[in-house]
Structure formats: C-alpha cells, structure tokens
Amino acid sequence: MVLHSAAREKRPGQRLAAPHPQGLRQGVSNPVLAEHLLHQYHDHQDWSYQRHYDNITALAKADPSLGPLQSYSTVRRYMKSVGLVRKSRPSRMARAEKRHNGT
C-alpha cells in the first residue's frame, strides 16, 4: 500500500497513517468486561475515565476468568465511541433541593 504525501493537505513532511487493516476501530474485545463497564458507568457517570479503568482493572485482576484487559487508551476511546462520556455531578444545593422536594 502506498501512503500519499500529506503535502496536498498543507502539512509537508508528514505522512498520512495507514488505515486500520479491517477498516474498523477496535473496542473492548471482552463483552463481559464491556458489560461491567456499562453498568459501572450508569452507576457513576461523574467518574473520570481513569477511575473507571482502575475499577475495571481491579475486577479483571480479582477474576482471571475475565481475561486480559486492553490499555487505558483503548478503554477510553471505546467509552467515548459508545457515548459513555463523563457528566458533571449535580451541586450540593441541587442534590439537597431534590431530596427536599422528594423527586
């Protein structure tokens, strides 16, 4: 496969990356870990990607039958690609008001 020069895109000296052999981005290959990640996200949407990854890593270490875990970068890209993005936590005042109103 010939990679064409990026000079046409006004970036001389750089080369374009070769496309992925399968043409698809890779995600979390273990469906059980992906399911745990999904449940964990729904319970803790305000957690950072690193915190989610650390918790999934601990789960994978505690249960070797889950198999190996991909890198942090892969897990973060997977989370973003399926819409699992970090949401800000409601303020204390908003949480207190919600408890007070009973909603």
Explained architecture:
The protein has 103 residues and is mainly α. The protein has a domain at 27-85. The chain has helices at 31-43, 49-62, 72-81, 92-101. Helix 1 crosses helix 2.
Which terms would index this structure?
4 helices, 103 residues, mainly alpha
Structure in a nutshell:
The chain is 46% helix and 0% strand. With 103 residues, the protein is mainly α. Helix 1 packs across helix 2 (49-62).
Topology:
Blueprint: H1 31-43, H2 49-62, H3 72-81, H4 92-101
Topology as a string of helices (H) and strands (E): HHHH
Low-confidence stretches: 18-25
Average predicted confidence as pLDDT? 78
Biggest pleated sheet: none
User: What's the total count of β strands?
Assistant: 0
In percent, how helical is the residue content? 40-55%
Identify the overall geometry: elongated
Query: What is Rg?
Result: 20 Å
Helix count, DSSP H or I runs of 4 or more residues: 4
Distance between the termini: 59 Å
Helix/strand/pairing category? mainly alpha
Share in β-strands: under 5%
